[in-house]
Design a protein that fits this description.
Elements (H helix, E strand, L loop, with lengths): L1 H10 L23 H15 L3 H11 L7 H7 L13 H4 L2 H6 L3 H13 L5 H18 L4 H12 L7 H4 L9 H13 L4 H9 L5 H16 L4 H9 L3 H14 L2
Length: 256
């Protein structure tokens, strides 16, 4: 979970810059948490305390406005409706990391990822993006190899993970769809050597940098076992106290 938030904050300053570089400062005075972090914490809170999913997402977003929410999600949180709006956007995938850590069998992971996605993102691609991200995290936690993760995600979700980042990067543009951002983020993890490398490679694609970093970071944390201490410290410094409390409680529940 902290890996997702770190990736979000690291990518935040490069989101609309079409940034294609690998060597960049991980943190700066301008680094901030976006909607990815707000909703990641909201999902963890709902899991921990068994809260209503839609109401919890709305409550967090209303408390932390102006964090880069998509237009349709913004309209939804300011409406009286709790009806989903058939989104295929990557908002369902970027908020789902805690699900991959919270559950200990694939059936529960996939079921929860669907439930937490479809309150807003009930389009098949929106659900698929959330499930693929959560399932990749689950597989990484189980000690699966990168090749096994790649094969399983390809088989079950039909994402093309055969391309390399070098092939993707030149023509890659800002893309908020699950189908256009979840596979590149997974590939960034698959090509990585460590947690930091995964986030750097995701951000260097030049697209929706905070969300790419968020998704790649969430899987990398699960696979490599932890987020480097210096990155975790810089990440936590940029979060409100109530977020830090939820994160701490989440890891305590996981026994870590």
């Amino acid at each position: 979970m902290i890996g997702a938030i770190a990736g979000d904050i690291i990518g935040s300053v490069y989101e609309f810059a079409n940034f294609k570089e690998y060597d960049f400062p991980l943190f700066s005075k301008e680094s901030f948490f976006t909607d990815d972090t707000v909703l990641t914490v909201a999902v963890a809170d709902a899991l921990i305390h068994k809260l209503d999913i839609a109401k919890t997402l709305k409550a967090y977003a209303l408390k932390y406005p102006n964090r880069g929410y998509g237009n349709t999600f913004y309209e939804w949180i300011h409406s009286t409706s709790l009806t989903p709006y058939n989104s295929w956007g990557n908002g369902s995938a970027m908020r789902t990391s805690s699900i991959g850590f919270f559950f200990n069998n694939e059936t529960d992971v996939l079921k929860a990822a669907r439930e937490f996605a479809e309150v807003t993102h009930n389009h098949p691609e929106g659900i698929k993006g959330a499930q693929a991200t959560a399932y990749a995290i689950y597989l990484a936690r189980q000690g699966c190899s990168k090749e096994e993760i790649k094969n399983d995600i390809t088989q079950w979700f039909h994402y093309d993970l055969s391309r390399t980042l070098d092939e993707i990067r030149p023509d890659y543009v800002f893309d908020v769809s699950c189908q256009g951002s979840v596979p590149p983020a997974i590939i960034a993890f698959l090509e990585s050597e460590n947690f930091e490398d995964a986030v750097r490679k995701a951000v260097s694609l030049g697209g929706d940098a905070d969300t790419l970093g968020c998704i790649a970071g969430s899987i990398a944390e699960a696979y490599y076992g932890q987020v480097p201490e210096e990155i975790a410290v810089e990440t936590m410094k940029r979060l409100p106290e109530e977020f830090r409390k939820i994160i701490d409680k989440f890891y305590m529940m996981l026994g870590g």
